[in-house]
Design goal:
alpha/beta; Glutaredoxin; 5-stranded mixed β-sheet; two-stranded antiparallel ribbon
Length: 183
């Protein structure tokens, strides 16, 4: 009787194991597929935009402000904890002489200005994008997102999420230096 119970227990448990395995394989394939989808904006001209500046609502920020030398464009929000944590990295990049521009994503002007007032402001210019429409045209639907744009206005790199040392050292800084040498 004990042997028969074991077999019945295994027969009940086997389909559950099979289902878990199938779900695991499908989830893994989905994650791999998402991670390996080429970014459609990389290698293309940056989308045209015309935004009011965050610090001066009467001044404009357009794609023409990005022309002439390689620059970073960072999509951020005051309500994004990761963006706040990333700001120190952006300040360091700016201190290294790398121009950092920003799109303030789905925020209020007051909260964005207050957030920038709590420490060093890494941004050369910030475009105020309260509905996130310009950011969406750039392919940024979450924050933070960082783009590297060459001197001609072509997007050469995109990273979704917080910038980290390994990414900077292996990809972003070498590519920036290469683009700067071409200037």
């Amino acid at each position: 009787m004990t042997e028969e119970r074991r077999r019945r227990g295994w027969l009940v448990f086997a389909p559950v194991l099979a289902l878990v395995a199938v779900v695991g394989v499908l989830a893994g394939a989905l994650v791999w597929n998402i991670m390996n989808v080429p970014e459609p904006l990389v290698g293309r001209e940056a989308p045209a935009f015309d935004l009011p500046q965050l610090h001066d609502a009467d001044a404009r920020f357009t794609e023409q402000d990005l022309i002439g030398r390689p620059v970073l464009v960072n999509v951020w929000a005051s309500w994004c904890a990761t963006c706040v944590a990333e700001r120190g990295t952006l300040v360091e990049l700016q201190r290294m002489g790398i121009p950092v521009y920003g799109f303030n994503f789905r925020d209020t002007r007051e909260e964005a200005l207050e957030s920038l007032g709590t420490g060093p402001d890494p941004f050369t210019i910030v475009g105020f994008d309260p509905r996130g429409l310009t950011s969406a045209e750039w392919g940024a639907h979450v924050t933070p997102v960082t783009f590297l744009v060459d001197r001609h206005g072509t997007v050469r790199f995109k990273h979704v999420g917080q910038l980290h040392a390994d990414l900077l050292n292996r990809q972003l800084l070498p590519l920036y230096r290469q683009l700067e040498a071409e200037t």
